[in-house]
């Protein structure tokens, strides 16, 4: 039923699983002997983070932040708001920010600046998807699952107006769904 609103599937469940395995192995290798704090950015990254941490063969801690720069729209407002802050201190910790997608870079840039002022030992970024064609602020992701085209993608945690997060695939949303036509 959900997929009737999808123009085309970009990544299947199997594609996503392979990406999680690859990223999990990279993080496991890079963080040997450490206890990283993985910060999931709600709500979009929750599905990705849940599957990703199962692929990491280390002790990790998790926490969450909820930030918004989109509201119900399809274009970032440019204003980042913290809706839910961390429960855990980051001071002296090795941090991995877990994002569903890096688009304009505004949200990620804002989060990294905040975590630096809170004296994190190190900050790295793991994103399921990167959309460099939309970058407004130069940010770097240390772990990138896949690159996506400049189209509106949903599924596997990504939404449009709180819909489509529960799709097991990632697809391009039909423009008529969000354009009102």
TrEMBL record:
<dbReference type="InterPro" id="IPR050408">
    <property type="entry name" value="HGPRT"/>
</dbReference>
<dbReference type="GO" id="GO:0006166">
    <property type="term" value="P:purine ribonucleoside salvage"/>
</dbReference>
<dbReference type="GO" id="GO:0000166">
    <property type="term" value="F:nucleotide binding"/>
</dbReference>
<keyword id="KW-0479">Metal-binding</keyword>
<dbReference type="GO" id="GO:0006178">
    <property type="term" value="P:guanine salvage"/>
</dbReference>
<dbReference type="GO" id="GO:0046100">
    <property type="term" value="P:hypoxanthine metabolic process"/>
</dbReference>
<dbReference type="GO" id="GO:0000287">
    <property type="term" value="F:magnesium ion binding"/>
</dbReference>
<dbReference type="GO" id="GO:0052657">
    <property type="term" value="F:guanine phosphoribosyltransferase activity"/>
</dbReference>
<dbReference type="InterPro" id="IPR005904">
    <property type="entry name" value="Hxn_phspho_trans"/>
</dbReference>
<keyword id="KW-0660">Purine salvage</keyword>
<comment type="pathway">
    <text>Purine metabolism; GMP biosynthesis via salvage pathway; GMP from guanine: step 1/1.</text>
</comment>
<feature type="domain" description="Phosphoribosyltransferase">
    <location>
        <begin position="15"/>
        <end position="160"/>
    </location>
</feature>
<dbReference type="Pfam" id="PF00156">
    <property type="entry name" value="Pribosyltran"/>
</dbReference>
<keyword id="KW-0460">Magnesium</keyword>
<comment type="pathway">
    <text>Purine metabolism; IMP biosynthesis via salvage pathway; IMP from hypoxanthine: step 1/1.</text>
</comment>
<protein>
    <recommendedName>
        <fullName>Hypoxanthine phosphoribosyltransferase</fullName>
        <ecNumber>2.4.2.8</ecNumber>
    </recommendedName>
</protein>
<keyword id="KW-0963">Cytoplasm</keyword>
<dbReference type="GO" id="GO:0005829">
    <property type="term" value="C:cytosol"/>
</dbReference>
<dbReference type="InterPro" id="IPR029057">
    <property type="entry name" value="PRTase-like"/>
</dbReference>
<dbReference type="InterPro" id="IPR000836">
    <property type="entry name" value="PRTase_dom"/>
</dbReference>
<keyword id="KW-0328">Glycosyltransferase</keyword>
<dbReference type="GO" id="GO:0032264">
    <property type="term" value="P:IMP salvage"/>
</dbReference>
<dbReference type="GO" id="GO:0032263">
    <property type="term" value="P:GMP salvage"/>
</dbReference>
<dbReference type="GO" id="GO:0004422">
    <property type="term" value="F:hypoxanthine phosphoribosyltransferase activity"/>
</dbReference>
<keyword id="KW-0808">Transferase</keyword>
<comment type="similarity">
    <text>Belongs to the purine/pyrimidine phosphoribosyltransferase family.</text>
</comment>
<keyword id="KW-0547">Nucleotide-binding</keyword>
<comment type="function">
    <text>Purine salvage pathway enzyme that catalyzes the transfer of the ribosyl-5-phosphate group from 5-phospho-alpha-D-ribose 1-diphosphate (PRPP) to the N9 position of the 6-oxopurines hypoxanthine and guanine to form the corresponding ribonucleotides IMP (inosine 5'-monophosphate) and GMP (guanosine 5'-monophosphate), with the release of PPi.</text>
</comment>
């Amino acid at each position: 039923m959900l997929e009737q609103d999808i123009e085309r599937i970009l990544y299947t469940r199997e594609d996503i699983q392979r990406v999680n395995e690859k990223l999990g192995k990279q993080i496991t290798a890079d963080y040997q002997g450490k206890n990283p704090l993985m910060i999931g950015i709600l709500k979009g990254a929750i599905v990705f983070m849940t599957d990703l941490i199962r692929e990491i063969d280390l002790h990790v801690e998790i926490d969450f932040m909820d930030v918004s720069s989109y509201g119900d729209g399809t274009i970032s407002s440019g204003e980042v708001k913290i809706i839910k802050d961390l429960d855990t201190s980051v001071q002296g910790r090795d941090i991995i920010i877990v994002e569903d997608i890096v688009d304009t870079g505004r949200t990620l840039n804002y989060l990294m600046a905040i975590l630096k002022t809170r004296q994190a030992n190190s900050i790295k970024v793991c994103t399921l998807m990167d959309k460099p064609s939309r970058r407004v602020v130069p940010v770097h992701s240390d772990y990138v699952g896949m690159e996506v085209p400049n189209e509106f993608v949903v599924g596997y945690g990504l939404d449009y107006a709180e819909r489509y997060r529960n799709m097991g695939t990632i697809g391009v949303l039909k423009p008529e769904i969000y354009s009102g036509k």
